[in-house]
Amino acid sequence: MATQPRIYSIKELNRYIRMKLESDSVVSDVWLRGEISNFTHHSSGHMYFTLKDSDSRLKCIMFATHNQRLPFIPREGTKVLARGNISVYERDGNYQFYVNTMQPDGIGSLYLAYEQLKAKLEAEGLFSEARKRVIPKFPKAVGVITSPTGAAVRDIIITLERRYPSIPIYIFPVLVQGKQAAPSIVKAIQAMNRFGEADVLIVGRGGGSLEELWAFNEESVARAIASSSIPVISAVGHETDFTIADFVSDLRAPTPTAAAELAVPHIADLLLHVERQRKRLDQSLQLLIKERRERLLRARRSPFFLQPRRYLLEQAQRLDLLKERLQERTLRNAERRILRLKRMHSSLIAHHPGEQAAYASKRLSSAAKSLEQAMQKAVKERRLQLVGTIRSLDALSPLKVMSRGYSLVYDEHEKRLLKSVAEVQPGDLIKVKLADGQLDCHVWSMRGDGADGDRE
What we know:
This protein has 456 residues and is of the alpha/beta class. The protein has five domains: 10-105, CATH 2.40.50.140; 116-128 and 139-265, 3-Layer(aba) Sandwich (Rossmann fold), CATH 3.40.50; 269-301; 305-343; 404-455, no CATH class. The chain contains 13 helices and 15 strands.
């Protein structure tokens, strides 16, 4: 009976192939050379691209944890050397190259990495002249960071001893070529800063190719120079060689010998300067002595020293005049102060509460008398006016008139004063008021003074 074949799922098969590839010693750690195409730098930080050559191509991925340490930024068409392992992406069933490290391939790629790092550091301001420190004119000690066996260190030492023989030189030997060169240089710069004896550092090496000088194009070396608290003079290669270290240093020297010349002054120049200053000082002292001697001669010829008594008498006379002026001014000031004191005393007395109360009392008494006189005068005037009014009323009083034989005639009800015979009729009752009483009368007949005649 035939054995039933085992049926695998797609996932199981892809996993089996992945395990086979990852267990293979050849493809688990392999270097590849190729050209980058279809490059994508994802927002997650991962890089997705394809490595190709003239005959084939391979999908690649480089995770963010690995590409953060890249010394350059990959671009389309960049030729690289990539190290990693081959595995299968189970979901799609595609095998791809997982890159761990990558570096430019060839001089062109090195120059590309150089230009990219240069642009990056320049954008951060590490090349700015504003952040660069001044090299001290008279350093107490010089630190030299270079290879202990190259010609550069000999040139630096010879130049320093020739120009400034007494200065201490601290040499920190480092690797200047190869993979360990950059960490060695960084360690030396940091150690020199901790040591703290040197006032200026010379960092460099002799000439060479771009690959040989590459340690001074590493980002770690550039940042170590920028963060150094001691001013740094770069001396890398020949006059035509420029590295990242040259741009970030506080001062660039075209050669190691030139770096030593820039680090310290020349003893001969200093001696010449001292001699010039000594001559200038000697001339200044001679001129000063001459001026003081002439001043002394003028003073000796002065009339004040030739006839001192006369000047003393003039000063005594002037002193007497000043004394008199002082006495006069003192007396005038005293008189003004006394007069001012008297005025203040009078003012205080005038504003004393007792004096003000007495003055107010006098004013009150005077006002009371004036008020009383005015009231008496007003009462007298009103009384005279009242008497005159009474007399006028008395003269116009009806009773006064009636006492002379006149009377008042009213109607029966005493509501109306009768002034004409036309206001009554025969038979009406009327009342006649006399000065001493009243008459009730009955009209029998009337006689008028007009043309109407009598009525009965």
